[in-house]
Records
---
Amino acid sequence: MKRNGTLNAIVARQMVRLLANGAFGQPAHLEVMSLFKWNRLVNMAEDHEVLDYLGKGMNNNLSEFQHFPDQLVDTIRNRLRQFEPPVFSERYSVGAIHFYSSRQKITFAELSEKDLFDTTPETRRMFLILMRNVCDMLLTGFCLRGLLDLGLALRTEGNHVDFVKLELWLGLMDLQRMVQLQGSILHSIFGFDLNELPFMDDLEPDAYRVALGCISDISRYSSSEWNFRQVSGGFLFNNSRQWLRGLRRTRLYFPYSPKESMRSLFHSIARSLSEIEE
């Protein structure tokens, strides 16, 4: 397990370098890796919906790949041709964001009815990106697509964001630490300066560890996968791998949002049980 964890950490660091280059134009200093590791890296990028930025990073650093496996080049090209980036307006729509704590659900609904549309489009987009990332973290696990979208929004639209209003909304949602974790990850793995993250009060010390651990989980927990299943004899079986992954995710984010992390866990269990025939 330790060896596998080390391998995943190496691959995750390599992917971060390529994504930082492909998305933000940062210099990439790459390591020589085996075909197995490169295949694992591509799987990670696909799982995190960032194959397009990975492709840009690799294309920008072709000179680094003197011994790049030819068969992997063909594999990546084929996957890139088939890859469809998430539609931004759909991914960050009000309807795509779901909370399971009563207070946060009501607050988000109230904000969505009026306040979100009584400000600049950039402020609204920033808030919806942050909220969608919170939902991803709690329900399906950390997703790099959301972090890259957040970073790009900060650098291209940050000057037009009303951060006073944004911080007011975050206070109403009571999700400041979950948002601060996102900013801390941008700082720790993508090199963002603190002055680029005006919604932050302080850095979360475990952000780097949290990020690498979640990036490495190439089978991220999905709320659509079963926790419990009923067989023909009427017996119930639990999917121990998914169950443990859900518990790990809840424990990971519990310090940042105790109520919402527990609500999300209970929701995934209730949803799975509701699909069992009585």
---
Amino acid sequence: MQILEAVAAARTGLTLTEIGNRLDLRTPTVHRLVSSLKSLDLLTSQEGSRSYMLGHRMQLLLHATLSTDDYSHLTTSILRDLVGELGETVHLARLNGTIAESVLMVQPEGSNRSFVQPGRELPLYAAASGKAILAFQSPDFIERYLARPRTAYTENTKVGDKELRAELVRVRANGIAVCDNELDPGVLSFGHPVRVKGGYVMYSIGVTGLTDRFRTTPRDFIRDRLSHAAALLGERFGDGD
């Protein structure tokens, strides 16, 4: 626990030597404990560096403790600005096991229809916000997830292994995920990954609207505004990239 606390307090990570010096531990002891923490994905070594950061599993535990009030305090102003720019419902989703959970939503003033109420569980393979998270998980996570059974919500839902893998490649290449009548009929959604400290994608920011109305908004503009908002959210969540 002292090692985890020390690494968490150091924004740029700590080397084995720095951990030993801070905690007055011998090098063999530090190496053994850090190796154990790394095997549990509680610590991870930075690529091209000898420093250690909090691992993916530890990050998931930390973010799982955030409440609706925490999310509202951290992100509402960013979501409201995005609603003003796009004129559609915006929401924040987080990875929760094998689903994307909607945790906060902001609607245009006067709107009375929503598809992403907080608490709604969104499938990673069908929802735009889910695809934006799934595409940037580890290869092992993706393989385990794609081995699970899938349900077709509409005639446009992609459920085949080959087409889903191709979809994830497109998301990684374009930086944005699309759900065009794949989850809710008549609804068009876009999702963008949000990176937290360590570069992990645990969140996505999504925008949703009725297909006939939303399709006229240029996709390049949507991508640009989502990307900007995602960068701001990453800063609020402590993006370590």
